Amino acid sequence: MITAANEDSLVQVLLEGSGALLAYAAVGLVLFIVGFYMTDLATPGRLITVIREHRNPNATLLAAASTVGVGLIVSVSIYASHGDLMEGLARTLVFGGVGIIAMTVATQIFDRVVGISIKQLADDADDELEPAAVLLAVANLMIGVVTAVATY
Q1: Alpha-carbon Rg of the chain, whole angstroms?
Q2: CB 32 within 8 A of CB 70
Q3: What is the value of pTM for the model shown?
Q4: Start-end of H helices in the chain
Q5: Phi, psi (deg, nearest 5) at residue 42
Q6: I need a surface site. Which of 13, 31, 54, 96 has the fewest CB within 10 A?
Q7: Percent of the chain beyond pLDDT 90?
Q8: Among 57, 47, 139, residue whose Cα is nearest residue 99
């Protein structure tokens, strides 16, 4: 049987949970946008133009991999906060930012050390998916996984 006290408690839980969800969604959205623009800095021209108009699969894969990497970091940061909203938001912001920086640095390292140039991949005239883009995408995903696990 549902009592008035139980209903009040349920309403309070739903309101607080909805507020936390919106706060996390806002922080996550900011991180996704920052991550996208960090990837944009490494590509020739505007990344959205390369994806939307040039339909370049390499640029699309790299942007998608970075977004999933950031999503993993955000998800685990929220989970690791154990219900503490302020801790969760702080973890999400800080570790998400660190993860984005790590992915950007890894892209530059791959460019200089391994010789996989995101600029060449995004400027592929044939618009074919290149094995190098898959490797770089997996590297970005794994940096996201490592950073996410490190937050826990």
Answers
A1: 19
A2: yes
A3: 0.81
A4: 4-41, 47-52, 57-80, 85-109, 118-122, 131-151
A5: -90, -5
A6: 13
A7: 26
A8: 139
Q: Which two tokens stand for residue 69?
A: 């990497």
Read off the pLDDT of residues 57-100 as tens digits, 9 standing for 90 and up.
998 998 999 899 989 988 888 888 888 899 889 988 998 898 88
- Please give the Cα distance from 46 to 69 (Å, whole number): 21
Hey, what are 111's tokens? 């460019």
Residue type (1 letter), 125: A
- Tokens 């009040």 correspond to what residue? 8
Extract the tokens encoding 81: 């906060």
Query: Helix (H, G, I), strand (E, B), or coil: what is residue 9?
Result: helix
Q: What's at 25, amino acid-wise?
A: A
Q: Which residue has the tokens 């990497």?
A: 69
Instruction: Output the six-digit token pair for 5.
Output: 């006290």
Residue 122 and residue 62 in contact, taking contact as beta carbons nearer than 8 Å = yes
Tokens of 144: 């996201």
Amino acid at 152: Y
Lookup: tokens for 74? 């955000």
Q: What residues have CB less than 8 Å from 19, skipping those under 6 apart?
A: none
Q: Which residue type, as a one-letter code, is found at position 142? A: M
Q: What is the C-alpha separation between 139 and 72, in angstroms, rounded? A: 14
